[in-house]
Amino acid sequence: MRKTVLITGAAGFIGSHIVDKFISNNYHVVAVDNLKTGNKRNINSRAEYYNVDLNRAVDVKKMLKKYKPTQIIHHASNLVDVELSVKNPSRAYKDVPMTINLLEEAVRNGLEHFIFSSSANIYGNKLKTAAKESYEDDPSSPYGLTKQAIEKFIKYASSRYNFKHTILRYFNVYGERQNINSQAAIPTFIKQLIIGQPLQIRGGNQLRDFVYVGDVAVANLLAAQAKKNFTFNIGSGKQVELKSLVMLITSIMGKKPTIQYIDREAADSFYSGGIITKAKRELGWRPQTSLKKGLTQTIDYYLKLVKR
Ligand SMILES: NC(=O)c1ccc[n+]([C@@H]2O[C@H](COP(=O)([O-])OP(=O)(O)OC[C@H]3O[C@@H](n4cnc5c(N)ncnc54)[C@H](O)[C@@H]3O)[C@@H](O)[C@H]2O)c1
C-alpha cells in the first residue's frame, strides 16, 4: 500500500518541490495550502490538494480527522521574510499557535513523525564560523524567535506524546519557483539583471550558504524515511562571498551590469554557514547540486517566467 504524507505549504517554493519528490517516490501526498503566497500551479497534479487556512483551528481539526496522517511535513508559514518580521512581529509569531494547534490535532489522530522547516536564522547574526546544531540559539529577529519557539514546542510535544520529530534548519534556499519579487539575494539580482537595472550590493564581503531547493527536497525524503529525533543543518556546507555570487550570476547570464556598492545593514550578519556532517552521517544526505548548476537552472526558470 502507498504511504500517505501530509505536506503543508505545498503551493509554496520549497513545499512544492517536496511534494514532487514524494510523488516521484510513489507516496500519496495530501498537499495543504491556503494559497496566501503560494500558487496552485506549483502543486503536482498527482497530489491531493486540500485548501485550508492553518490558523483556523476548526478547519484543521476537520482535515486531520479526514486524513489521520501518521507523517506531516510542515512548511506553511504566515511570514517567511526576516526583514518584514522585524516590522511585523505579531504576523511572524502567528506561526507558533498555528503549529501548536496542528500538532495537538495531529497527535489526536495518530501522528508518528513530524518534520519541521526551521531556519539558520535561529543561530542569530553573530556567527564567526560554521554553526553546529549544538550551538546555542541566539535569534536576532522575530522570524528566528518564532522558529526557536516552535522548535522547543515540537521537542516538548514529541517526548510528551511519543511521536518522532525531525527539525531541518535551512540556510539560504534558492531555485525554481522562488518568488521573483522575494527580498532574497538570488531572485533579487537575477530580476535586476533581467530588467536591466544596475545591481545594488549591500556590503559584498558577507559569506552565505546557498542550498539548491532540489537538494532540500531530498533531505525531507530521507528524513521521512529515517524517522529520527534529530535537528539537522541543511545547507551546501560551503560559504560564498556575496560579490562572488553576483559575478557567477552575471557570467551565467552573459551580462556586464553597473554595480553599486552600498553599506551593509547594521543588523545583517557578516557570516552565515553551517556544518552539515550530522545530516550526512545520520541521513546519508549530500547536497548534489553545484551553485553554478543550480543557478543556471534557476535563471532559465526566471527567463521563461518573464516571457510568459
Ligand atoms: N526560503 C528559504 O530560504 C528558507 C530558509 C529557511 C527556512 N525556510 C522555511 O521554509 C518554509 C517554506 O518557505 P518557502 O520559502 O517555501 O515559503 P513560501 O512562502 O513560498 O511557502 C509558504 C507556503 O505556506 C502557505 N501558507 C501561508 N500561510 C498559511 C496558512 N495560514 N495556512 C495554509 N497555508 C499557508 C503559503 O500560501 C505558501 O504556499 C517556511 O517555514 C520558511 O520559514 C525557508
If you had to describe this structure to a student in words, what would you say it looks like?
It is built from eleven helices and 13 strands. It has helices at 13-24, 57-67, 82-87, 89-93, 95-108, 142-161, 185-194, 213-226, 242-253, 277-283, 291-307; strands at residues 4-8, 28-32, 48-50, 71-74, 113-119, 164-170, 172-174, 199-202, 207-208, 210-212, 230-234, 240-241, 259-262. α1 packs across α8 and α5 runs parallel beside α6 (142-161). The longest helix has 20 residues, at 142-161. It has a seven-stranded parallel sheet with strand order 3-2-1-4-5-6-11, sandwiched between helices. It has a two-stranded parallel ribbon with strand order 7-10. It has 308 residues and is α/β, with parallel strands linked by helices. It has a domain at 4-176 and 211-236 and 275-288: NAD(P)-binding Rossmann-like Domain (Rossmann fold, 3-Layer(aba) Sandwich). Helix content is 42%, strand content 18%. It is globular and about 55 Å long. The model has no long low-confidence stretch (mean pLDDT 96). It binds nicotinamide-adenine-dinucleotide (NAD). Nicotinamide-adenine-dinucleotide binds next to α1, β5 and β7.
Order of helices and strands: EHEEHEHHHEHEEHEEEHEEHEHH
Strand content: 15-25%
Annotated CATH architecture of the domain at 4-176 and 211-236 and 275-288: 3-Layer(aba) Sandwich
Which consecutive residue ranges, at least 5 long each, have pLDDT under 50?
none
End-to-end Cα distance, whole Å, is 40 Å
> Which outline best applies?
globular
The CATH fourth-level homologous superfamily of the domain at 4-176 and 211-236 and 275-288? NAD(P)-binding Rossmann-like Domain
- Give a count of the beta strands, DSSP E runs of length 2 or more: 13
As a whole number of angstroms, the C-alpha radius of gyration is 19 Å
The major pleated sheet works out as: 7 strands, parallel
Question: Can you tell me the CATH topology of the domain at 4-176 and 211-236 and 275-288?
Answer: Rossmann fold
Mean pLDDT: 96
Oligomer: single chain
* Spatial order of strands in the largest sheet: 3-2-1-4-5-6-11
What percent of the residues sit in helical stretches (DSSP H or I)?
Answer: 40-55%
Ions, cofactors and other ligands present here are: nicotinamide-adenine-dinucleotide
**What is the CATH C-level name of the domain at 4-176 and 211-236 and 275-288?**
Alpha Beta
